[in-house]
Amino acid sequence: MTLSSHVGIDLGTSSVLVYVKGKGIILREPSVVAVRNDFGDNNREIVAIGEEAYKMVGRTPRNMETIFPMREGVISNFEFTEKMLQYFLQKTVGHPLIKPAICVCIPCSITEVEQRAITEACMNIGARSVHLIEEPVAAALGAGLPIDRPDGCMVVDIGGGTADIAVISMKSMVRGASLRVAGDTFDEDIMRMLRRKYDLLIGKKTAEEIKIAIGSAEIMEDPGTMEVKGRHAITGLPAMVTISSNDVQEAVSLSVQQLCDGICRVLEQTPPELTADVVEHGILMTGGGSLLRGLDRVVARKTKIGTFVADDALSCVAIGTGRYVDELSEKMLGF
């Protein structure tokens, strides 16, 4: 049993990262729950959470299903989000003598109702207090940007469910937007392309594997290739096709264009002085979606601003949330 812990949570659509003060990031697991439906939807039994549940995605028998309780950065299933958080908190801090203070990062365009849902879920699992931080601010903190100064910096955090775009100055968001175009959107684009072009049906996990292995946001002169197995849409029999990086580029091109348009809209709304700062310092990209090959170059060509991907793009938000936890624990009495 431990004393009170100060916990930072990157509660994402695809994964959950947990930071504990003094220990760093100690948990990184998919945000998925596997449930059994033997007794109907009103009495579903949880059989696995996180990594173990993710292994079952697309492979469950008829009486089981896998549920992603977070959708587009917000809670879509309150009950299972609460159970998932409770499991991860138990796994990371156990049973502290004093209830933990929890900081959760949120999309920048989240509504008050959605904020209350996250706060309520954390209080229900035993939080002493709950603090919310916008994802782009957390990402900038995690990447080590000097956001405490009156200079403008632009962050594009592309997670699983949302892409959060923000111009930040003096630790606050000046202009921002949250787009429903992100890593999951790229996966869906790949699934649609394979069905339309090759009559091949695949699942979300296979689409994600394709994106990671050969995905690209721009046409490549020497594209990578990959054999993809699935079910033929017409015959219903197992089938296999070979696709290239340029097939993936074709699939995600519209989503990439929407993302670039969103970045341009935020720049258009930004005060001229801060826009000049962004031009000088460049655009920082974080999140798993930013790792799509060539995406930073596509954004740079569209905006005519230097664009770079953070060194640890996957962990930036969690690291920044942790640093925010550390600051609060030092400055706020009782935290």
Note the topology:
Blueprint: E1 6-11, E2 15-20, E3 24-30, E4 33-36, E5 45-49, H1 51-54, E6 64-67, E7 70-71, E8 74-75, H2 78-93, E9 101-106, H3 112-124, E10 129-134, H4 135-143, E11 153-158, E12 163-169, E13 172-179, H5 183-198, E14 200-201, H6 204-214, E15 225-232, E16 238-244, H7 245-269, H8 272-281, E17 283-286, H9 295-303, E18 307-309, H10 316-331
Parallel strand pairs: 1-9, 9-10, 11-17, 17-18
Antiparallel strand pairs: 1-2, 2-3, 4-5, 4-6, 7-8, 11-12, 12-13, 14-15, 15-16
Describe this entry's structure for a reader.
The chain is an alpha+beta fold and 335 residues long. It has helices at 51-54, 78-93, 112-124, 135-143, 183-198, 204-214, 245-269, 272-281, 295-303, 316-331; strands spanning 6-11, 15-20, 24-30, 33-36, 45-49, 64-67, 70-71, 74-75, 101-106, 129-134, 153-158, 163-169, 172-179, 200-201, 225-232, 238-244, 283-286, 307-309. The chain has a 5-stranded mixed β-sheet with strand order 3-2-1-9-10, sandwiched between helices. Strands 13-12-11-17-18 form a 5-stranded mixed β-sheet, sandwiched between helices. Strand 15 (225-232) and strand 16 (238-244) form a beta hairpin. Helix 2 (78-93) crosses helix 3.
